[in-house]
Amino acid sequence: MIETLNLCKDYDGKRAVIDLDLKVEPGELFCFLGPNGAGKTTTIKMLAGLLKPSSGTARIAGYDIQTHPVEAKRRIGYIPDRPYLYEKLSGRDFCTFVGDMFGIDRAEQLRRMDHYLEIFDLTHAADEFIENYSHGMRQKLVFSASLMHDPEVVIIDEPMVGLDPRSARTVKNLMREEAARGKSVFLSTHTLSVAEEIADRIGVISKGEVIFLGTIEKLRAELEHTGNLEQLFLQLTEEGESEAPKGQGSLA
């Protein structure tokens, strides 16, 4: 699972993430929402161990990402919004590189690699250099490689960028399947229709503070609004601009 306690990050004296308390349980698909600059990507980078918190704690499957980084990162599948890939490798070679890094037996690597390349319709391009891949193909390759070690926690930043509708559907189905297998899935997205379709719970962050945490039905009840998530999000964040931040609500 994912757990944070009083997690904060400062940049040049300005607090980008403020006292984040969050728990994403095994088997839960959690969507993290917020306006541009709200602190979503900063939070994700702290969870993935790419940024050091200014204060507070983040734990992955019980391991503190700062004090036990190797144990924590072994349990994470991380898909960034702008992945870095080795362009002179083929897609298959890149998956093999990731599999070796996680110590996966070669026979098991091949089985898992073939499975994900087929799911993402990349088998035909597996032996081509990554430099010849489109943006969408690169995104699908990162998904394939990031899931090869069967991580307990999947962290995704803007998963639908550059994907065609069929590939986007594949990603949504796969994330639901990963959660159904007992994994904690943390997904940040601006595509509110995706969050409305697949999220078990959502968190909304604005100016570094979580202003809502719970189900979409709970948000409708709190705002006394029966609209879709886009309408709810706009109302909530507009109120957040003019009012003091709301409490985070229950973690249930």
Concise structural overview:
The protein is α/β, with parallel strands linked by helices and 252 residues long. The chain has nine helices and ten strands. The strands form two sheets. The chain has a six-stranded mixed sheet, with helices on both faces. Strands 2-1-4-5 form a four-stranded antiparallel sheet.
Tell me what the structure shows:
With 252 residues, the chain is α/β, with parallel strands linked by helices. It has a domain at 2-75 and 151-242: P-loop containing nucleotide triphosphate hydrolases (Rossmann fold, 3-Layer(aba) Sandwich). The chain has 9 helices and 10 strands. It has helices at 40-47, 69-73, 91-101, 106-119, 135-147, 165-180, 192-198, 216-223, 229-242, and strands spanning 2-11, 14-24, 29-33, 55-60, 63-64, 76-79, 153-157, 184-188, 201-206, 209-214. The strands form 2 sheets. It has a 6-stranded mixed β-sheet, with helices on both faces. Helix 6 (165-180) links the parallel strand 7 (153-157) and strand 8 (184-188). Helix 8 packs across helix 9 (229-242). The longest helix is centred in the C-terminal third of the chain and has 16 residues, at 165-180. The radius of gyration is 18 Å and the shape is globular. The two termini are 14 Å apart. Residues 242-252 have low confidence and may be disordered.
